[in-house]
């Protein structure tokens, strides 16, 4: 669930930051400005904010705690503004103060539904979010090291172009892998899906959409699909067993 919450925060961040340029981070960690911005946003949303959301959901904290943590993040934003590592374009800290309580509420409801095992959609979306974040983590080192880039022509800045297309690529791969694992398809179909993803990389390379700096980076990139597929199948079994346990438990108390 923690990874799923990170994915939700990341999806929202991707829209307002990478597509609509709402603000800028300048932590000064990486030399390429847009990669530096992306790293700051990624760590903030996928780990810091989602960690608090997971804490609130796990302990089902009351609304007062939700307001307290929301105010804390708003205060952090103002602190970053004062330090000069954060620049607002059209975003405002007040928007954060409104969005976070909604996000924390979603986390609490998601936790309950996941424990109940009553929603197939929640189980599927949890798998998608888990895949997305693990993909992003595995891709981050070669990505920030400049071992590959995407070229779509949507943005003049190559780094921004790479980030946006990579997000779409990662989301599609995460959803496809989650779907085949969710329906527990035959291993031959799982292997076929992985092969199709690899063919997609080759086609993208042929069309000069995806470019690898080193050939071994392509093999590493492709190996991620196998790793994610294995992890996703294991997670799906855990969620499925939890759903079955809850169904069995409810049947004991039904007349």
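^ structure tokens above, recovered residues below v
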């Amino acid at each position: 669930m923690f990874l799923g919450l990170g994915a939700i925060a990341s999806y929202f961040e991707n829209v307002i930051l990478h597509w609509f340029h709402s603000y800028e981070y300048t932590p000064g960690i990486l030399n390429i400005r847009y990669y530096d911005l992306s790293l700051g946003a990624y760590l903030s949303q996928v780990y810091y904010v989602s960690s608090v959301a997971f804490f609130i959901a796990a302990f089902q904290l009351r609304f007062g705690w939700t307001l307290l943590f929301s105010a804390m993040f708003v205060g952090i934003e103002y602190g970053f503004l004062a330090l000069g590592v954060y620049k607002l374009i059209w975003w405002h800290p007040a928007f954060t103060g409104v969005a976070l309580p909604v996000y924390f509420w979603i986390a609490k409801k998601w936790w309950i539904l996941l424990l109940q095992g009553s929603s197939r959609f929640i189980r599927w979306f949890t798998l998608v979010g888990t895949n997305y974040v693990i993909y992003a983590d595995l891709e981050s080192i070669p990505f920030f090291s400049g071992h590959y880039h995407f070229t779509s022509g949507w943005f003049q800045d190559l780094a921004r172009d790479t980030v946006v297309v990579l997000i779409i690529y990662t989301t599609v791969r995460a959803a496809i892998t989650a779907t085949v694992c969710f329906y527990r398809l035959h291993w031959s179909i799982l292997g076929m899906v992985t092969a199709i993803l690899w063919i997609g990389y080759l086609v993208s390379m042929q069309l000069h959409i995806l470019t690898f700096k080193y050939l071994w980076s392509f093999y590493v990139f492709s190996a991620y699909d196998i790793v994610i597929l294995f992890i996703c199948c294991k997670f799906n079994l855990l969620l499925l067993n939890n759903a079955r346990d809850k169904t069995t438990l409810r049947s004991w108390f039904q007349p």
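Residues 126 and 227 are 17 Å apart (CA to CA).
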